[in-house]
Amino acid sequence: MMFRSIFLFTVAMTATLCAAPASMSAAFPVLRPKSTVVFIGDSITDGGRARTGRDYNHTMGQSYPFILSAMLGDQLAERDITFINRGISGNTVPDLQARWKTDVLDLKPDFLSILIGVNDTLYPKGGGETVERYEQGYDKLLSETLAALPGVKIVLGQPFLLPVGNFKDTYSVSFAHLKERQAVVDRLAAKYHLPVIRYQEMFDAACRRAPADHWTWDGVHPHYAGHDLMAKAWMETVSAMH
């Protein structure tokens, strides 16, 4: 159902764009003219992005933020929106805390997209990223951001995992741990009245069309097809925000 709604949304958006480009002036009301959109997270967001330079083909990486900046940069060209990728491979919530001022607050985003949690679950550094620490740290990031940037709009990405590669035989155990972080995201979204992009449900639905390894090569990192799904799910959620 989730995938079908995303598919229909994309078809409708494409038809609208082709038939009457002027109507896009009312789309995505949350993305205002001259606004700055920042994506932050781990390697899924990073996408091998360049850390320096002004060539957006490199600094946006090869992941869903690049697809989104390409699509929306075209569809909403008259708004002159700036897209910035601040994903860093291997990051956990404590890593985000250490760089939050520089990579988020100092950039003064009008819109912030966060996806974090898989490393906290599967690759904890020193065993320190417990569910409690994940929730406390994530909560602090959100409260500090809303206090420092009262007008900012925020969307939370649901961390996800598929039974591919090293996780194929241990999926039930690994996913049970990840579900605890997914529940944290839901609690924080409810607390701060923020929307959640439900990537897990999206990928689960997609796996009924094609096997899991069509969407991700290791269970964590999407293929290009998976990043396209993520971009469409992001657009569906964000288009409904005000």
Average of per-residue pLDDT values: 90
N-to-C order of helices and strands:
HEHHHEHEHHEHEHHH
Strands of the largest sheet, in order across it? 2-1-3-4-5
Strand content: 5-15%
- Rg, rounded, reads 17 Å
Helix share, percent? 40-55%
CATH topology value: Rossmann fold
CATH architecture: 3-Layer(aba) Sandwich
Oligomeric organization of the protein chains = single chain
- The total tally of domains equals 1
CATH homologous superfamily name?
Answer: SGNH hydrolase
Largest sheet: 5 strands, parallel
- Anisotropy-based shape: globular
> Would you tell me the structural class of the helices and strands?
alpha/beta
End-to-end gap: 24 Å
CATH class: Alpha Beta
Describe this structure in words.
It is a single chain. With 242 residues, the chain is of the alpha/beta class. The protein has a single domain (30-239), classed as SGNH hydrolase (Rossmann fold, 3-Layer(aba) Sandwich), CATH 3.40.50. It has eleven helices and five strands. A five-stranded parallel β-sheet has the order 2-1-3-4-5. Helix 1 (2-19) crosses helix 11 and helix 5 (93-103) runs parallel beside helix 7. The longest helix has 22 residues, at 171-192.
Structural features:
disordered N terminus; 11 helices; Rossmann fold; 5 strands; 242 residues
Write the layout of secondary structure elements.
Layout: H1 2-19, E1 36-41, H2 43-46, H3 56-59, H4 64-75, E2 82-87, H5 93-103, E3 111-115, H6 118-122, H7 131-148, E4 153-157, H8 171-192, E5 196-197, H9 199-206, H10 212-215, H11 224-239
Parallel strand pairs: 1-2, 1-3, 3-4, 4-5
